Amino acid sequence: MKKTVLIMAGGRGERFWPKSRKTMPKQFLALTDDRRTMLQLTVDRILPLVEMGDVFIVTNRDYRELVRQQLPKLPPENILCEPIGRNTAPCIGLGAMHIAKKYGDADMIVLPSDHLIKYTSIFLDTLESACIVAEEGPNLVTLGITPDSPETGYGYIKFQPDRMLGRAFAVERFVEKPNLETAKEYLASEQYLWNSGMFIWRVSTILDNLEQHLPKTYQGLCRIREVIGSREAEEVLEREFNAFKSESIDYGVMEKAENIYTLSGSFGWDDVGSWLAVGRIKRSNEFGNVVDGRAVLVGTKNTIIQGAEKLIAAVGLENMIIVDSEDAILICRQEHAGDIKKVLERLRICNQTEYL
Amino acid sequence: MKKTVLIMAGGRGERFWPKSRKTMPKQFLALTDDRRTMLQLTVDRILPLVEMGDVFIVTNRDYRELVRQQLPKLPPENILCEPIGRNTAPCIGLGAMHIAKKYGDADMIVLPSDHLIKYTSIFLDTLESACIVAEEGPNLVTLGITPDSPETGYGYIKFQPDRMLGRAFAVERFVEKPNLETAKEYLASEQYLWNSGMFIWRVSTILDNLEQHLPKTYQGLCRIREVIGSREAEEVLEREFNAFKSESIDYGVMEKAENIYTLSGSFGWDDVGSWLAVGRIKRSNEFGNVVDGRAVLVGTKNTIIQGAEKLIAAVGLENMIIVDSEDAILICRQEHAGDIKKVLERLRICNQTEYL
User: Fold this and answer.
1) Does B338 lie at the interface with A, CB-CB under 8 angstroms?
2) Could you tell me if B297 and B259 lie in one domain?
3) Co-location of A263 and A308 in the same domain
4) Does any CB of chain A come closer than 8 Å to the CB of residue B92?
5) ipTM
6) Do residue B205 and residue B343 come from a single domain?
7) A160-192: per-residue pLDDT in tens?
8) Cα–Cα separations (whole angstroms), residue B124 to A291, B46, B47, B130
9) What's this model's pTM, rounded to 2 decimal places?
């Protein structure tokens, strides 16, 4: 069956401030690589499996030009722009309708645009197996990541070790981010995987499920589909998206649907959730420092430095994050990386929107 | 007797990098005040005692224009430029010759341009008392600072509590920077003051002492004096300074001379020796942070932030120094402030002279 991919690139990630901004979110930055952005790497990675003409990007209207610049070979009509973000269910529904209009039915691989995957060949092999499961019936397949630590920042998938279809396990249930104790139990039980937010299904399967579990959203999506390519397209899209309830595909569909399967993946996945990820991913020197840009380090270790134009001099530092950007500098202790969002809250309160 | 002042402003302080540079040393920066530079404050402070026409500035040739800009009311001929730095003895000798040429004899107050003095009226009162002692005989008077801690970064003056002249004590000897144990003994003995590098004497007294203790330098200074104001002035100055031995007034004269007196001062003196001084001097907020420029602080305390154009966001920091400048950013733990010079060493080794 025809294989297509939908890449979700509408996020406005705040955790990579001050490099990531409202006008330049994480997926458009080269955070894990010296040259290619995370969106570009996501496309590069999937191309052995899918033709460029079958790659669809859903993003916000504000980022259309960024996508066009970063993916010059992508057919412009494959950039699907949401007028407003309504979480993943309407986003995936919009993609499904476009693919359905073009191909009738097809395999549909849904991927975030801002994750790192180190072992591309293992990843592609896992996707191929997932497509087989998706083609065998009205199955919704999700990739689960084999945990190597009791992470409290991810949702988990409980699978049934004795119910397999192909290489996939039947999913018993999805669970939200656990506390540390629960996460440790999950890890010990060997029945839980991390929820990666990557999905594989036939377009017809996800549309049937949207119709059943989110009928109002489905009807709006149908009205959008009718006018794709016509003069009214923009107007209808705007109206319907404004009317949509904000709904994630996990809560809106996956937790209610039947026939959910998961394939466990071990392909060097990282959700690149904060600056700490850059420390994990990029090459460090003998003192554990990860440095981009011009820097002079004196008595400094385990420190992440992301420079811009200016020279950065670090003296006597340990476990720090230093990021320079065009108009703002971040200096943050690594254990406080989660508090970067508080900086953005303050900026919002003080109406200093130019820095957001 | 006529009162004159010689302000030494030729230093190239490195400890305020990256704000202080070879082209813009500490004394030309507003480090302790929001508007006035340290040189300007030094002149402001002394003007109740001395007329502007009797203020002489010795600096390096490279800084003539900076002095002119910062002190527009100073007579241009009062800017005395050294072709090359030869420490304080030739510097003070050059000033003494200019003053002698203009006035024959006069009181001469010698001040660094880069110290902070909080209580101007107490300072001026101390200077007046010092002038009386200087006028009473061939006395060399130095201001000693009453210590409030066992500082290891300053030289000390041992005075004789039972030998006074006016308000001054006779000096028994000068001692170099002590280790902590010795510094504690000095403090406990109540017979030691910090050596501030501020001097008061008659011009004739210091010239006699230079003739006696540094005769070669004295002879060179005499040749310079002969041609002051003539066409050859620059050429002779260049030749003589190149020939001078580098010599401090402390080693070259004070430690060998007779009739040394010290007045103890308690006028809120700080030598502004490193970024830590900015933390001591400037107003801090409730969390002990001293902030200049635009900044957002989250969970941050006892941190010194000196911004430039960019917003600085500090998250989870304690006891840090953050300084932004046009082309370089410093992030330094306060206890490592002394290692800033290592940054400059590295830059020199790597030939990145644009940052020096």
Assistant:
1) no
2) no
3) no
4) no
5) 0.88
6) no
7) 999 999 999 999 999 999 999 999 999 999 999
8) 52, 7, 10, 10
9) 0.89
